[in-house]
Write a structure and sequence with these properties.
Helix content is about 25%, strand content about 20%.
Length: about 180
């Protein structure tokens, strides 16, 4: 009888190491909160003003490059031939376009798409001579991606490389030789 009492006291005092404790599965809500917080890509600032549409596009894409996403023009609105608003979306926004059904002899192979139907939306508007940005839906539904994964950032990298002078092959330089 003494043995049972000692064992009972010993088991009450013993602390179970964390590796031996039962893991309680997280609830679905906790998992969603964790996923959304880890996918939180900061939207661009809406406090700045810009002189041109190209300046605002360059600024939001520089911010997006740092955050791991890119923005593209979804559509523009014009009055008297001049653009006064540009609707922007994440480059992963949208869905794969369905094509007309083809006969089996003309059928193409199935390919994948990078589109995730990302809900991010913003509008660049011309107001009183300056461009302002208004973020309508700031959330993304995908992880951050390196700049090389976005076409707009790859194009920017190619255009920023200086071209050699005419008649000189690429990769050669006369500086310091």
């Amino acid at each position: 009888m003494e043995y049972d009492q000692e064992e009972a006291q010993w088991s009450e005092q013993e602390e179970v190491p964390p590796s031996e404790q039962e893991e309680v599965p997280p609830s679905e809500q906790e998992e969603e909160e964790e996923a959304s917080s880890s996918m939180s890509l900061r939207p661009p600032s809406t406090n700045d003003t810009y002189l041109t549409l190209s300046a605002i596009l360059k600024a939001v894409n520089q911010h997006g490059k740092d955050q791991g996403y890119a923005l593209v023009k979804r559509r523009t609105k014009q009055k008297k031939g001049a653009i006064h608003a540009a609707y922007l979306r994440c480059d992963k926004g949208g869905k794969r376009r369905e094509r007309l059904p083809l006969r089996d002899s003309k059928r193409r192979r199935k390919t994948s798409t990078r589109m995730t139907d990302c809900p991010f939306e913003a509008v660049a508007r011309l107001q009183e001579g300056v461009w302002i940005l208004d973020v309508k839906k700031p959330a993304h539904n995908h992880w951050a991606i390196s700049a090389i994964g976005h076409l707009i950032h790859r194009k920017e990298a190619v255009t920023s490389v200086p071209k050699p002078p005419p008649g000189e092959p690429p990769g050669t330089s006369t500086d310091g030789v």
